[in-house]
């Protein structure tokens, strides 16, 4: 198991290098001068030149890359051109917010999506199955921003049940922090719930026609046990893999939801950095996201092995 | 769920006890134009083996799955007939009652040992689960029972094997585990659906021998579903030959082998390769089994039968001959008929 994880980590290294080169090059190809964005109204060539020197923007691009990646390896992702804060610090501030949002959204998605998927697989071809599929399709089709705005209108403005926006750190007041984030997490989770439901349904359908499920019935087990133990345990592999990958996507994809509910998360950081040509921050964010994604992938692979006795012993 | 019913004497074996009797049983799949199982009759006695023989798609497996209540809900409707098990009528619609019988009184093993065990659970746990599903035994009592039966079916180092996953066992070992799982609750009826088809020839013989030994020990009745006449010769007390959902011939094994009366059975028998005698092309039964979509009226074998006559448009009844032998053919017994027409 340990050697498996190590092997996967070694394979991840070239991926990360490739991503870093790609991001760095792309940034350089984008139109717009970060120094101009930084200097604002100031157009004095001497000031601009000073800034270029300061941020080493005059070095050849490969040198710039190696400086950046070398520093990144020591945990130094550079300094934000805009706020003068270290990039790592900025990310460290915003990432937990988004992780909390993504985790809560994922819980919503799993609690809704997985049971719905099992249920519609068991009731395949009935009205229940049909209704569940229609609901799932609506979940996928309704745009996040629309659902978010509607929920704010109803739950916050009309019924005054939950706050419309804002963020309270988990460490400050856990209960309040969770309450404030309920609505955005639900909005973010619905589309995922639909995806999870569809995948759970198809995974369940494929295992439910398998021979060992027939054996479980032939043993005289109650149907609940046949479904939840013998079938679901084998359908779990694709579901867990999907969940891990979706979670990686959530971190990157929370941008819109964070904008609607004005949550000071990762998404907002990305948007601000891109608009302000804050190279260092954009690069840092992409690198961290990529590493996070690779980590979730690794987690999915580990789960895959743990769930599958055939792979475990090898 | 159950109604009292007089146990019938078995016409086939001479034994006066009948474990399972299937009477005039018909079943049709949803949307099919004709019956998949057409007025089937057979019975099994305790300690005896009934072999149901026939080509693929003739309805052997469907009949056994129906008996176990394992056909998918709503997939088929029962047209006629009844099944009497241990003197009581089976109510196939009563899912709870059928579930309680399954795995305890009547059990089943399948063709594919490679895929019939759940790959995610240890084999010991899968057997323990079968015990616990039907009794109030404690976990450790169930484990003892599982270990004992694994030893009985010939699993070497059974204590260690209990903790193995199915993929760590060979096909023959897995079929032994399936047999252990089926027998752990001392059933009175074992339905074996082609249990040796997927195995090597040497393993086949071992598995058949194991089933026969266990049967002798426990007085369990067995329905062996197979298309392999070698298996039938090896293990059968009585034989029911099935063709396109009907039983065309039934009787004691030696009579079916030595004196087959139905043209289809005769065709089957002559397709067995012989070691002695002149060599030639292996005989086959020409044509294909008709599907429910194009089932002929009357005798279902008529389209492939070398003796077919206009009368075959009428369905022949399963008419008794001597010695528990019965044939569904207008021309039985064949000898008399051939003499008459000569």
Compact description:
Chain A: Belongs to the binding-protein-dependent transport system permease family. Helices cover 78% and strands 0% of the residues of chain A.
What does this molecule look like?
The complex is a heterodimer of chains A (314) and B (342). With 314 residues, chain A is mainly α. Chain A has a domain at 92-263: MetI-like (MetI-like fold, Orthogonal Bundle), CATH 1.10.3720. Chain A contains 14 helices and no strands. Chain A has helices at 2-29, 34-39, 45-54, 61-73, 87-122, 127-141, 144-158, 174-208, 211-218, 223-253, 255-260, 266-275, 279-307, 309-312. Chain A is globular and about 85 Å long. The termini of chain A are close together. Chain B is an alpha/beta fold. Chain B has a domain at 20-105 and 187-272 and 281-341: Rossmann fold. Chain B is 32% helix and 20% strand. Chain B has helices at 60-68, 95-101, 113-116, 123-132, 139-152, 158-161, 171-183, 201-218, 229-235, 253-258, 263-270, 334-341; strands at 20-29, 37-44, 49-53, 76-85, 88-89, 106-109, 189-193, 221-226, 238-243, 246-252, 319-320, 326-327. Chain B has an eight-stranded mixed sheet, with helices on both faces. The longest helix of chain B is centred in the middle third of the chain and has 18 residues, at 201-218. Residues 1-15 of chain B have low confidence and may be disordered. Chain A binds chain B through residues 210-212, 214-223, 225, 230, 233-234, 307-310, 313, and chain B through 68, 70, 95, 99-104, 107-108, 110, 112, 115-121, 129-130, 133-134, 165, 167-168, 178, 181-182.
Jot down its keywords.
heterodimer, A: 314 residues, mainly alpha, MetI-like fold, 14 helices, 0% strand, globular, B: 342 residues, alpha/beta, Rossmann fold, 12 helices, 12 strands, 20% strand, disordered N terminus, cell membrane (chain A), transmembrane (chain A), plasmid (chain A)
Secondary structure: elements and pairs:
The complex is a heterodimer of chains A (314) and B (342).
Chain A: H1 2-29, H2 34-39, H3 45-54, H4 61-73, H5 87-122, H6 127-141, H7 144-158, H8 174-208, H9 211-218, H10 223-253, H11 255-260, H12 266-275, H13 279-307, H14 309-312
Chain B: E1 20-29, E2 37-44, E3 49-53, H1 60-68, E4 76-85, E5 88-89, H2 95-101, E6 106-109, H3 113-116, H4 123-132, H5 139-152, H6 158-161, H7 171-183, E7 189-193, H8 201-218, E8 221-226, H9 229-235, E9 238-243, E10 246-252, H10 253-258, H11 263-270, E11 319-320, E12 326-327, H12 334-341
Parallel strand pairs in B: 3-8, 3-9, 6-7, 7-8
Antiparallel strand pairs in B: 1-2, 1-4, 4-5, 9-10, 10-12, 11-12
Helix pairs in contact in B: 4-5, 4-7, 5-7, 7-8
Membrane topology (chain A): Multi-pass membrane protein
Subcellular location (chain A): Cell membrane
Protein name (chain A): Dipeptide transport system permease protein DppB
